[in-house]
């Protein structure tokens, strides 16, 4: 088993030094962010307070606790969110929007997969975030 564990200190990885702000949720986009993290990017995942990413409950299979009891945390969620730092932020509040803008200003990539136009009402769309960081890329 130890042969399969990645030794992150062994050699520089392709995306080392790149910060990704991951606003994604559900299926494909979290997987894309996982790959960026696997390649060495510093990925910061934003989740909703309370319930988090919808994929936390996509299963089976589900994680079991130390006593062997099945939990409500899906294996899919755990696999797609490895190598990420996760924080909860309510993007519908002015405080949450300010925090996301601050993180975007310090990120090289913003990854999101909200419905087209959904982030505009919170001033978190591409045009709004480009005002705080003109040097980053957005992936949709």
Could you estimate the helical fraction of the residues in percent?
Answer: 10-25%
Silhouette: globular
Query: Which radius of gyration do the C-alpha atoms yield?
Result: 16 Å
Class based on secondary structure composition and strand pairing: alpha/beta
Total number of β-strand segments?
7
Largest sheet: 5 strands, parallel
What kind of assembly state do the chains in view correspond to? single chain
* Mean pLDDT over the full residue set: 88
The amount of beta strand, in percent, is 15-25%
| Spatial strand sequence of the major β-sheet | 5-2-1-6-7
Summarize the structure.
With 140 residues, the protein is α/β, with parallel strands linked by helices.
Provide structural commentary.
This protein is an alpha/beta fold and 140 residues long. The protein is 24% helix and 21% strand. It contains four helices and seven strands, in the order βαβββαβαβαβ. The chain has a five-stranded parallel beta sheet with strand order 5-2-1-6-7, with helices on both faces. The chain is globular. The model has no long low-confidence stretch (mean pLDDT 88).
Keywords:
140 residues, alpha/beta, five-stranded parallel beta sheet, two-stranded antiparallel ribbon, 4 helices, 7 strands
Blueprint (SSEs and pairs):
Blueprint: E1 19-22, H1 28-38, E2 42-47, E3 62-64, E4 70-74, H2 75-80, E5 84-88, H3 94-105, E6 109-111, H4 126-130, E7 137-139
Parallel strand pairs: 1-2, 1-6, 2-5, 6-7
Antiparallel strand pairs: 3-4
């Amino acid at each position: 088993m130890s042969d399969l564990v990645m030794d992150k200190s062994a050699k520089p990885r392709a995306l080392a030094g790149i910060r990704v702000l991951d606003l994604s949720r559900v299926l494909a986009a979290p997987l894309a962010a996982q790959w960026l993290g696997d390649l060495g990017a510093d990925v910061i995942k934003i989740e909703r307070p309370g319930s988090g990413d919808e994929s936390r409950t996509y299963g089976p299979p589900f994680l079991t606790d130390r006593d062997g009891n099945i939990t409500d945390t899906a294996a899919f969620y755990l696999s797609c969110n490895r190598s990420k730092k996760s924080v909860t932020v309510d993007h519908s509040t002015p405080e949450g929007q300010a925090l996301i803008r601050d993180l975007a200003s310090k990120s090289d990539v913003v990854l999101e997969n909200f419905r087209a136009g959904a982030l505009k009402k919170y001033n978190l769309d591409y045009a709004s975030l480009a005002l705080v960081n003109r040097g980053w890329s957005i992936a949709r």
